[in-house]
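User: Here's a structure from my thesis project, written as structure tokens. My advisor, Dr. K., wants to see whether a designed sequence matches the one we expressed. Can you design one independently, without my sequence as a hint?
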């Protein structure tokens, strides 16, 4: 059964020769894409190994069949962002595809290369989102059966979208890995062809048509293209085409700090399997990149930049302000990385392309994005300030705040001698937070800068004043729970009856995993048993008992 993973590139073909028309079959899109004016630079800038890897895919990309279902998306300037950064930022609008993602390019190209017998038998894939819709739409266009295995945690929005396109949805398991294993079993039972979301040469070639369009659409100097990485299919295709045709253009991958399998793999020279991945950017939450995508990225990708959740939220806001479109987190990674790159390099007057690769955003997640965007844009700072409980001290503190806009102010009396205030202030640059904290401290107000403290940003700002004399022997933890019925009961049933939950805070953020703050009273002498319980628990966690914000506001 054909999977594409055993692809043999065959004899070496020089990429420059692949661009020449003589004796070669090429699609009409490939003829338009031939960048003859830049071709002479290719041979000079690529090493022999890079030339070989790039050439393996060049002809496949030039002749890829994607335009039966995909459209050539716009390459449009982000005018406001470009003005702010003093560089030209162009958005490759893959969020405008029929399924709001680039994924249908690779899915359709894979299926177009199947034999008539394979298409008649049907296809199967495992996906929680964009790839599922790409396979379903491609199958409908080809008139073949498509079975889509999705985790039971998949949002209803994604399930409904796949079913509306004619896909047969099978819900199985708690994660993509569970769904993937079940899909392989169903493939064998039903004689179906597996359409991999990224680790397949035909899929990679289909995604590479994005780069073909970029180089045809953009005339003039181009410094770098920024590409989100999950399993690596998109960046493998883009890197292969760009390095064969315009090798002077840097190809920069982007991952979130908590889902950086490709970055770690390239650093270690082998594929790394992550124990856990963050799920805010669920479109790139992959624990292990593909065999083939790793090989291509190792040869052709120039650099990988990581960005955090706040930076991604700020990038979503940036794109909205320029286009009035709302990207999903994975779709905004490229924009977040452009901003980080410009800040790091202190560059001006350059041209960058960010691929806005998806817009399948869950509506409920927008409140979290709006709340965190100000942190990512470095426009809000949070502080815990201790002031004396005496007449005039609050007025003196407010005088120090001065004309700055107050974004949040939380206080509840809890001590006869001092008061702990949780305050948010609008700022213009990140380094202002440190200067403000030093100013407060200079005037005698003990201050803790909480701007980068996850406990403060996600939980404590909503819980100020929650003290209790009854919470003795309490330890504090942040957990990630699956957003599904029964997750809390599983946690409670695993606990010893002698351990009491003394604090619990949860806010639904519209994500696949919920972030929960739990205080647990562990009697003296039970610490070893409790630590053993944590090691066997399936949920990711971090202990916050020693976090200073806990002591100031909750303990």
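Assistant: Designed independently from the structure alone:
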């Amino acid at each position: 059964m054909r999977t594409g993973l055993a692809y043999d590139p065959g004899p070496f073909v020089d990429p420059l020769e692949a661009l020449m028309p003589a004796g070669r079959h090429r699609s009409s899109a490939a003829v338009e894409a031939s960048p003859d004016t830049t071709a002479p630079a290719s041979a000079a800038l690529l090493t022999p190994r890079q030339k070989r890897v790039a050439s393996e895919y060049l002809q496949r990309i030039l002749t890829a069949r994607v335009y039966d279902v995909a459209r050539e998306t716009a390459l449009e300037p982000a005018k406001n962002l470009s003005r702010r950064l003093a560089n030209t930022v162009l958005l490759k609008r893959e969020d405008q595809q029929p399924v709001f993602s680039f994924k249908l390019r690779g899915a359709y190209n894979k299926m177009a290369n199947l034999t008539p017998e394979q298409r008649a038998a049907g296809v199967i894939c495992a996906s929680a989102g964009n790839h599922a819709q790409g396979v379903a739409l491609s199958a409908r266009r080809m008139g073949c059966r498509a079975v889509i295995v999705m985790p039971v945690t998949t949002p209803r929005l994604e399930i409904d979208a796949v079913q509306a396109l004619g896909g047969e949805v099978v819900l199985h398991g708690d994660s993509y890995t569970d769904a993937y294993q079940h899909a392989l079993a169903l493939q064998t039972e039903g004689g179906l062809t597996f359409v991999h979301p990224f680790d397949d040469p035909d899929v990679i070639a289909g995604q590479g048509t994005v780069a073909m369009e970029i180089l045809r659409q953009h005339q003039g100097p181009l410094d770098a293209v920024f590409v989100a990485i999950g399993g690596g299919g998109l960046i493998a295709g883009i890197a292969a085409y760009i390095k064969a045709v315009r090798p002077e253009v840097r190809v920069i991958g982007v991952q979130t700090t908590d889902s950086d399998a490709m970055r770690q793999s390239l650093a270690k020279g082998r594929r790394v399997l992550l124990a856990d991945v963050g799920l805010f950017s669920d479109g790139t939450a992959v624990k292990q990149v593909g065999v083939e995508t790793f090989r291509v990225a190792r040869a052709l990708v120039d650099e990988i930049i990581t960005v955090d959740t706040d930076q991604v939220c700020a990038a979503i806001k940036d794109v909205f302000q320029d286009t009035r479109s709302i990207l999903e987190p994975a779709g905004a990674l490229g924009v977040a990385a452009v901003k980080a790159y410009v800040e790091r390099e202190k560059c001006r007057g350059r041209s960058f392309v960010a691929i806005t690769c998806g817009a399948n955003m869950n509506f409920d997640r927008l409140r979290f994005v709006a709340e965190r965007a100000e942190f990512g844009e470095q426009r809000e700072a949070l502080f815990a300030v201790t002031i004396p409980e005496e007449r005039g001290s609050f007025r003196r503190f407010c005088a120090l705040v001065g004309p700055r806009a107050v974004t949040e102010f939380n206080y509840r009396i809890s001590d006869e001698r001092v008061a702990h205030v949780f305050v948010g202030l609008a700022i213009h640059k990140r380094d202002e937070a440190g200067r403000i904290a030093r100013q407060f401290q200079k005037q005698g107000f003990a201050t803790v800068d909480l701007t980068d403290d996850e406990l403060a940003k996600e939980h404590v700002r909503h819980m100020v004043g929650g003290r209790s004399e009854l919470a003795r022997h309490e330890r504090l933890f942040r957990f990630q729970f699956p957003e599904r019925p029964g997750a809390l009961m599983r946690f409670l049933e695993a606990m010893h009856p002698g351990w009491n939950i003394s604090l619990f805070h949860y806010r639904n953020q519209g994500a696949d995993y919920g972030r929960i703050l739990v205080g647990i009273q562990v009697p003296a002498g039970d610490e070893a048993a409790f630590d053993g319980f944590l090691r066997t628990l399936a949920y990711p966690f971090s202990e916050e008992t020693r976090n200073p914000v806990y002591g100031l506001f909750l303990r």
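When you compare it with your expressed construct, this may help: The first helix runs from residue 15 to 19.
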